[in-house]
């Protein structure tokens, strides 16, 4: 190999440091260069520099595959291998654009040759929250197997990515909402073709069947939502779970605030006793005190392991705000790796308004989870539909919203459309189940007027 130009050695030292660096952190350092010089990189791509660098990039990929045996990379050794890429890039362009192009080629070469090691490296650290600009592995689910056909949304073909590769991304800054990916939970793998999803709706009228505590100081708030008849709710939650198990449902989801402690305990027992429980269960959410703090907590089961997610974006009912803590705030994806160490499938759960938060949407776009599940309680659901479709198109995620809403009331009589007591004819017929998929199939939408809770609403995960 040729001698290392002094400018290249200086740049690599500034970018990677002097000591050995883990592979994914080296790739992330290169991706941060790309992000910080995105305009220059776009300019270089417009000039066709990528084509000129193809051969040099392939040579670098081969060198990395042949010479890097462990999880660490020495910048001095990498410098020798990058000389060819550096010289071709600087023959075409100069300045920040040339360095950004080199960074992009190095990141892609690392991904192609060694990217299968990123998820195992991440797992070893056991630090699941990712600071802005730091790396995390990206899932590569075999969605074509699930859908038995082509996908219509291919995010990286919309525009060549600036600061991510096929197997690695860097966490965004997202209004204080943390990015997290957890590889400790035993998340079930991608469900098989034909797998069924069920929305379990145990409550017919949340306003009649639920009660809550109100306070006026220090500001108007409501909280401690709980069933008026706990035994009745517990029976409904359990009966719907048993029905889902009997049907062989793969994914079972309850709405927000549709369970309490008693219903949750009974549901746990039913799942534990089942010979073939669902692969994934999201038991809606409940108001609970966790470590002395009021929370709205969703409970998730998969492969016999339980996890929780706390809501961070409280609901406003008129002047009253939901009385829950809003920090820490995070979007967490639970992931499973395949036999080759690649992150193969991820699931993210967000409670109601959390999904609508712009910061959460930015994290979800970066995480690209395979499956997003949103337990909700909302009379207005059009925004959930639009955001679910948008996220599906940007990320290839399957987005599932399971919602509880009121039946309509006219002169004291329940009628067959969702609306509050003072409804107008143009009020929204709220969605109780939405499944948005990255295929030609239209979203599955079931509205409140079409169901009579308590009811189990079943559809296929893939259409």
Describe the structure.
By secondary structure, this protein is α/β, with parallel strands linked by helices. The strands form six sheets. The protein has an eight-stranded mixed beta sheet with strand order 3-6-16-17-18-19-22-23, with helices on one face. A six-stranded mixed beta sheet has the order 13-12-11-10-7-24, covered by helices on one side. Strands 8-9-15-14 form a four-stranded mixed beta sheet. It is 37% helix and 27% strand. Helix 2 (23-36) runs antiparallel to helix 7 (95-114), helix 3 (38-46) packs across helix 7 and helix 12 packs parallel to helix 13 (261-273). Residues 410-426 have low confidence and may be disordered.
Class of secondary structure makeup = alpha/beta
Helical content band:
25-40%
- CA radius of gyration is 25 Å
Query: Can you tell me the overall shape?
Result: elongated
Mean pLDDT: 91
What is the strand tally?
24
Give the strand order of the largest sheet, numbering strands 1, 2, ... along the chain: 3-6-16-17-18-19-22-23
Unreliable spans: 410-426
Spatial gap, N to C terminus = 53 Å
The total count of helices amounts to 16
Largest sheet: 8 strands, mixed
Strand-residue proportion: 25-35%
Topology summary:
Layout: H1 6-16, E1 21-22, H2 23-36, H3 38-46, H4 49-52, H5 54-67, E2 72-73, H6 75-92, H7 95-114, H8 118-125, E3 129-130, E4 135-137, H9 143-147, H10 155-158, E5 168-170, E6 178-182, E7 196-201, H11 206-209, E8 210-215, E9 221-227, H12 230-247, E10 251-254, H13 261-273, E11 280-290, E12 293-302, E13 305-310, E14 316-317, E15 320-322, E16 330-337, E17 343-349, H14 353-356, H15 358-367, E18 371-377, H16 382-395, E19 398-404, E20 408-410, E21 413-415, E22 431-436, E23 444-447, E24 455-460
